[in-house]
Amino acid sequence: MEKEKILIIDEDGFSRVCAAILASEGYAAERLLHDAAHVVGERVGLVIASYPFGERFFTDLSQISQPVIVLTDHISRDLLSFLEGLDRSYCLMKPLNFEQFVLLVRNIMSGVQICPGGYSIV
Description:
The chain is an alpha/beta fold. Helix content is 31%, strand content 26%. It has one domain: Response regulator (Rossmann fold, 3-Layer(aba) Sandwich). The protein has four helices and six strands. The protein is globular, with a radius of gyration of 13 Å. 31% of the residues are buried.
């Protein structure tokens, strides 16, 4: 059975680091640099998107049911509005605590942590 992928939408440098961290934890991570529309219907267990870098993908992401982790260094009205439009999302503040980040990813991917709807700021 194919593992569910984790899609990463972030700047090239951090997305490489993030993919390497997730790979070291046993996850299949794919970096998205162009569009997130193909996320719908794929075996994707989680999407990780940086704000404001990934803002151009937000319309696509608002149409999926997969959980989304949004990484940001500031909270804005636009970001909160986007988070409200997602079914299941988490917002992590940068700089990231990588242990907390990996634990959140692990819990989401294993089904231990399920956001019932809306968003949580972690």
